[in-house]
Design brief:
about 400 residues, Rossmann fold, 2 domains, six-stranded mixed β-sheet, ATP hydrolysis activity, ABC_transporter-like_ATP-bd, cell membrane, ATP binding
Length: about 400
């Protein structure tokens, strides 16, 4: 997705560097023994500590290969203070800053419209909401809340989770402030237009919107593949507008990336594709030998390690790609239409896999056109339109926009 009008002279803005998810050749930075030691320890993850062994994931309850059945249980993230943001299940679906129809009405003339809020008239000039009006709005709210399609149309821009995290002193993994991107080829049509976002550790976020609404550009700014025209992008404490080129490989090794077209090396086996990601960041052979089979087992490909990509189905190839993205245990996983080439049943498996990875504490961001998936998972949804965030909903569905 999202390769419109790209020219070699424009993107990427930084030198090609090895990164998890985009294997690069052997000029990878040498390993440091400290990093390797860290990699081999049972880790307390920092937001940007990419080093937990895959065995940690395996030990996470229920995080088993897909074919081994269901029941992924609670995440281990709770044991980790840095991943202590409440899970979506723990966060009340209330809408704190949104006036309830049961609240006393604002004095006449002082009603403040909020974006996306289903506003009602405040009632008669006296400011009193009649019981009938309150009942009507309450029942409509209930309908909206229970129907993803309606909910997404009328949903408010919510910030309760962000506020909770902020109050708890947790830093966002991703912070975007007034981010605008104008590609030279389209000077009058910003691909991103004053985007403000906070994404916290452990969140699972869907990014939706029409084709061309800016999803890929937004993900690319997080990876520093695209440098915004203006604004501020902080990823795990690194200011990407100021980061030095030589530090970008370190940034990217903390971010797993999964793409619609898998981006596997065609002449390498599943094992070799995953191993290559570790080789690129200088992991010792012993670590690679231990980690790669483990992570392939976790994605249910224990039997296909020696298969070349063209001997695998689309879903299996995508699982190799997910394995490659997660083998270094990045705290952040960015997925650009990971199910775009897959049929619905296979897509479901990939999404379950991503959800399980998220349950181990990894922040997962998924750009998708998969309406059914977004509706069924009811996670945080950020909707883009014309490069602007038009909806940021703590738990939502796909909505009536963002479809093809
Ligand atoms: N390298 C580029 N040069 C010029 N314009 C670009 C470039 N990349 C993207 N655009 C434009 O920026 C806008 C956003 O594109 P982007 O690929 O981010 O959208 P998207 O939501 O990911 O779309 P899709 O769902 O089709 O992948 C579009 O108008 C697109 O044509």
């Amino acid at each position: 997705m999202g390769n419109h009008f790209r020219t070699p002279s424009e993107e990427p803005v930084t030198p090609q560097v090895p990164q998890v998810g985009t294997p690069a050749p052997s000029h990878a930075e040498p390993s440091s023994s400290a990093q390797d030691r860290l990699f081999e320890q049972p880790v307390q993850h920092s937001v940007f500590d990419a080093s937990a062994p895959a065995a940690d994931i395996a030990s996470a309850e229920g995080f088993a290969p897909l074919h081994q059945g269901e029941a992924a249980a609670a995440p281990q993230a709770a044991a980790n203070p840095l991943f202590s943001v409440p899970s979506p299940e723990d966060v009340p679906a209330s809408r704190p800053n949104i006036p309830s129809p049961m609240d006393p009405a604002a004095p006449a003339g002082q009603e403040v419209a909020q974006p996306g809020v289903f506003m009602t008239q405040a009632g008669p000039a006296s400011g009193v909401v009649t019981d009938d009006q309150a009942d009507e709005v309450a029942s409509l709210d209930a309908v909206l809340a229970n129907n993803p399609d309606f909910t997404t149309v009328f949903a408010p821009v919510e910030d309760s989770r962000a506020r909770q995290a902020r109050e708890a002193g947790v830093e966002p993994v991703i912070l975007m402030e007034h981010v605008t991107k104008v590609y030279p080829a389209q000077p009058n049509k910003p691909a991103l237009d004053d985007v403000n976002l906070e994404i916290y550790p452990g969140e699972f976020v869907f990014l939706v919107g029409h084709s061309g609404s800016g999803k890929t550009t937004l993900l690319n700014t997080m990876l520093r593949n695209v440098k915004p025209t203006s604004g501020r992008v902080i990823v795990a404490g690194q200011d990407l507008m100021k980061i030095k080129n030589r530090k970008i490989p370190f940034l990217r090794r903390q971010i797993g990336a999964v793409f619609q077209d898998y981006k596997l090396l065609p002449n390498r086996t599943a094992y070799e594709n995953v191993a290559f990601a570790l080789q690129c960041i200088g992991k010792p052979k012993a670590v690679i030998k231990a980690q790669v089979p483990e992570v392939l087992r976790l994605v249910g490909l224990a039997e296909q390690m020696d298969s070349l990509p063209d001997q695998l189905s689309g879903g299996e190839q995508q699982r190799v790609s997910v394995a490659r993205a997660m083998v270094n245990r990045p705290p952040l996983l960015i997925c650009d239409e990971p199910t775009g080439n897959l049929d619905p049943a296979i897509s479901l498996g990939i999404m379950k896999l991503l959800e399980r990875i998220n349950r181990t504490g990894t922040t997962v961001i998924v750009a998708t056109h998969d309406r059914a998936m977004v509706d069924s998972m009811q996670r945080r949804v950020i909707a883009l339109e014309g490069g602007r965030v038009i909806r940021d909903q703590e738990r939502g569905g796909y909505g009536n926009y963002g479809a093809f």
